[in-house]
Design brief:
One of its GO terms (molecular function) is protocatechuate 4,5-dioxygenase activity. The protein has 10 helices and 10 strands. By secondary structure, it is an alpha/beta fold. The strands form 2 sheets. It has an 8-stranded mixed beta sheet with strand order 6-3-7-2-8-1-10-9, sandwiched between helices. Strands 4-5 form a two-stranded antiparallel ribbon.
Length: 279
């Protein structure tokens, strides 16, 4: 049977892609962020997952404000990205796993989740930056990826509890898949940040560290938060934390935190990085 071997959380801001392109990882500004990934690379090399389920949000490449599904899941054989206007170079196609995706989609619908199933789907920096961080030099061709896109751009947005339960249902679907596969789950985005308005540049380190702690020790407590709580405490873009809640929901074993790091600011963002083993 398929099984979730662990979860990884990371920021996905587009400037990370520019830093990778320009080989800035060891510069004074970027080194405190990139130094957190060699341990993750070593773990991925050791565990050799077959599939990555990636919780992310689309920033207008595939879904714009005129059509914004609450939950969208890719069921394509491969995923391409395109020029988003950030100056980030496109990366090679990311392999998909349609059969596994359809299994998850069927389970979610049976579990009364309303999802948009995408047999063609462009993926933006919300997914491509984490792929570059986890598998440097675009070395992900051996991986299959299942994109899980959550709406954090247009209200109404799904609550932390709803996304946590979505992750649980995806974890159940993975456990019931009858192929021997190792699955790693990625929660991307955030943490606290606000890109515009009166609070532009806002970062709340205390709240970020609280969320990182409770994510492991008491996710049910985090499920009590509303989207407005995330905005009030984490800035207008703070709701990206719901992707972390989806990732956490899919982890249903005994958890062992192998790595937990926080650095701010990176492009006016509080960046958290976690590596969580799911025993």
């Amino acid at each position: 049977m398929a099984r979730v071997i662990g979860g990884i959380s990371t920021s996905h801001i587009p400037s990370i892609g520019k830093a990778i392109e320009n080989n800035l990882q060891e510069t004074e500004y970027w080194q405190p962020f990139f130094k957190n990934f060699p341990g993750i690379h070593a773990w991925l090399e050791q565990e050799k997952p077959d599939v990555a389920v990636v919780f992310y949000n689309d920033h207008g490449l595939e879904f714009f404000l005129d059509k914004k599904p609450t939950f969208a899941i890719g069921a394509a054989a491969s995923y391409m990205n395109a020029d988003e206007g950030w100056g980030i170079p496109t990366i090679p196609a990311i392999p998909g796993d349609p059969e596994f995706s359809w299994h998850i989609c069927n389970h979610l619908v049976e579990s009364e989740f309303d999802i948009t199933i995408c047999q063609e789907m462009k993926v933006d920096h919300g997914l491509t930056v984490p792929m570059q961080l986890m598998w440097p030099n675009n070395s992900y061709s051996h991986m299959k990826v299942i994109p899980v896109c959550l709406n954090v751009e247009q209200h109404p947005m799904p609550s932390p509890k709803r996304c946590y339960n979505l992750g649980k249902a995806i974890g159940e679907a993975i456990d019931s898949y009858d192929k021997d596969l190792k699955v790693v789950v990625l929660g991307t985005g955030g943490l606290s940040h606000q890109l515009d308005g009166e609070r532009a540049g806002y970062i709340n380190k205390e709240f970020d560290l609280y969320c990182m702690d409770k994510l492991i020790s008491d996710p049910d407590e985090l499920s009590k938060l509303t989207i407005h709580d995330l905005i009030a405490n984490g800035g207008a873009q703070g709701p990206e934390f719901i992707m972390w809640m989806g990732m956490r929901g899919a982890l249903n074993g005994e958890l062992n935190v192998l790595q937990s790091d926080y650095h701010a600011p990176i492009s006016n963002t509080g960046a958290g990085t976690m590596l969580i083993e799911n025993k």
